[in-house]
Amino acid sequence: MKNNNKLIILVLLLAVAVAAYLYFNQGKTTYNVEGAKMDFSVEDTSSITKIFIVDNQGEHVTLVKGEKSWLVNNKYDARPDNIRLLMKTFSRIAVKAPVPKSAQDNIIKSIATKGTKVEVYQGGGKPSKVYYIGNSTMDQTGTYMLLETEGVKSSVPFIMHIPGFRGFLNSRFFTDSQQWRDAAIFKYQPQDIQKLEVTYYEKPEQSFTITKKDTLFIMTDKNNQEVKAPANRILEYLERYEKIYYEMVDTESTPELIDSVLNSQPFIRISVTDVDGEINEVVAYHMPNFRETLDPVTGELFEYDVDRMYANINKELFVYIQFATFDEITIKKDDFLIKN
Q1: What CA–CA distances, in Å, run from 115 to 71, 94, 108, 138, 278?
Q2: What is the distance, to the nearest Å, from the Cα of residue 227 to the centroid of all Cα atoms in its chain?
Q3: Total domains present in the chain
Q4: Between vectors from CA 205 to CA 199 and to CA 206, what angle results, nearest 5°?
Q5: Residue 259 lies inside a defined structural domain of this protein
Q6: pTM
Q7: Which domain does 331 fall in, by range?
Q8: Of the residues 153, 180, 207, which one is the last residue of a structural domain?
Q9: CA 189, CA 156: separation in Å to the nearest integer?
Q10: CB neighbours (10 Å) of residue 246?
Q11: Which tens digits make up the pLDDT trace of 157-196?
Q12: Most CB atoms within 10 A, among 131, 251, 291, 326?
């Protein structure tokens, strides 16, 4: 009996020794291999001043930290939610596992030919960190990455993840500048508005203009005749321009369809001139009833989509907008005169 116990103990000790050897040997060939770089995370994301992203097709975007907000290619405000997601990624990214030695060469080649490069700047003219981002793992829970610091690349790649998040990370580093743009069309306080023009093309008699004169706002009709609208209603209407967003950039319509829409009669045009003289304009167009939505009262097809419209922002960005959002500001002239 004693001999059996000794044998069992010997087997257990041997198993522990083998496991320890494999563990530490694995560490020497992966985590602790010479030239390996694993310090992907940025502890202080507030120190990040610029991010440059370029894909394997040469498409690229530059995100720069401005005085008030992040800018896309030094031209447009960036989407705050996308910037927050990037900062969260930089601060929490961690090594999930080493890439097996047998797969390292293939992963490095794949990153070099199909990957995305991300340069992170923390002041100065050189990036503090450069990520080379490849595909996701087979189980979609990690992303192959290789790190470069001080101009030197890591000798091996790693599988990266966000602890507590089940998914891949490469989709967060896209290069379409339009998708990085802030979705806000109008972001004004009443005191920031000098003039607001609303033009209804189907009912031009309902068009109006609101102009700031000293500390008051004056409403006029399409003939420039003053409309005796209550001051509190005008102010309440202007307050609605604080947060008006488009739904998404239209990346599906063909150039021919977009040209056809832009050459058709608009539904409404809204133009805001701020106190600095900057003009911000959106022109909305009806969208065909592609989904064939039926009128619940008549049982017939609606002529147009009842949820969305096309819109052209400042004659340069073609987007989808929702009635649920724009119903707030598509108020007609006579609506200001209706008694409570």
Answers
A1: 24, 19, 9, 16, 40
A2: 41
A3: 2
A4: 60
A5: yes
A6: 0.73
A7: 184-336
A8: 180
A9: 52
A10: 23
A11: 999 999 999 889 999 999 999 899 999 999 999 999 999 9
A12: 131
